[in-house]
Amino acid sequence: MGEKLSCIERIFEKAGRKYILGQNARYDELKNETEGLKRTIEQLTSELNQEKAALRGAQIALAEAYEYMKVRKETNPSLEENIRNNNIRINRFDEMFENLAGRLDMQEVKFKKLSRATEEEAPLTREKAMTPQMMPVDNEYDCVDYFDFENHFRGSREAIKSVQKQYIPYFKGRTNVLDLGCGRGEFLELLKECQINAIGVECYTEFAEYCKMKGLNVAEDDALVYLRNQDKVGGIFAGQLIEHLKFNQIVELCELAYQKLEEGAYIIMETPNPMSLAIYTHAFYMDPSHNKPVHPLTMEYFMHKVGFKDVKILFTESSRYPVEIPELKVGGVENLDAFNKSMKEVSETLFGSQDYAIIGRR
């Protein structure tokens, strides 16, 4: 019996040594992978710093060129006949300057993200190496660099601000205005410029950090979660948000907004317009995180349903697709007016406003 026990002990001891050797080998393998990853991050950080320095130099050069053009335009009378051409060139400099500034800010955010990833990376221990596990994926779009994606497709911040200026009068004289899903902070910046007290709510870390770099007040949180935890707010703006939500979340947003808004305060939600077929072949499906567009009459119904007054639908002229079916102008054709009227409706369906805003007062 003793001999059998001794034999069993030797078998377990041998198996244990083999297991430990295997785990040690796995640990060494993971350690090497981690060190390789750190070297890659350091290299990327160095490259980002170099690109940042190059962009900074280009930005300074453009600023100097811009000032030079302004001085020449103002002090040299012989250039009077070329003022229009100079203005075009200056506008181009403005566009290039804004583009470079945006790229510089993007690199700054990416640099911070890489630095944070390096700092937060904990050293791999033998215990962790022996119990490897895969982290759950919370969102199917986590694989997308949404900050870079938005900057590529959304357009310049100044262009967005010029469109959103029309909404500012609804929030004049209000405090604690919320910009839900504030993104790059265009509307939040407009509110600040108009001295309207406001806070942005953004769930993407990179966008939140970008807004903070711009000196804007932003909470990094889910829009619905943040709104649930508020007492009363002086206004709500949600630009290009509801098309990302499920329908029950949209209904909850309407209900919460009515509960939380002060009497007389407004909510404005801007979103793609499904009444224009152009959105389906252009902007809407470029963004993989879009759920589905919401018909303006559906939004109008639910806004009335929860209690909002003075509900109206505003189709944004600036979002129209730059094509329309021209009128047919020929003689001797019966029902020409009726034909042109019908084709105008077809043109509106195909190329009408790609965005609309639903506006309601508490």
Automatic annotation (TrEMBL):
Pfam families: Methyltransf_23 (PF13489). InterPro entries: SAM-dependent_MTases_sf. The keyword Ion transport does not apply. The keyword Signal does not apply. GO terms for biological process: methylation. Gene3D superfamilies: Vaccinia Virus protein VP39. Keywords: Coiled coil, Methyltransferase, Transferase. Residues 27-61 form a coiled coil. GO terms for molecular function: methyltransferase activity. This is Methyltransferase family protein. It comes from Frisingicoccus caecimuris.
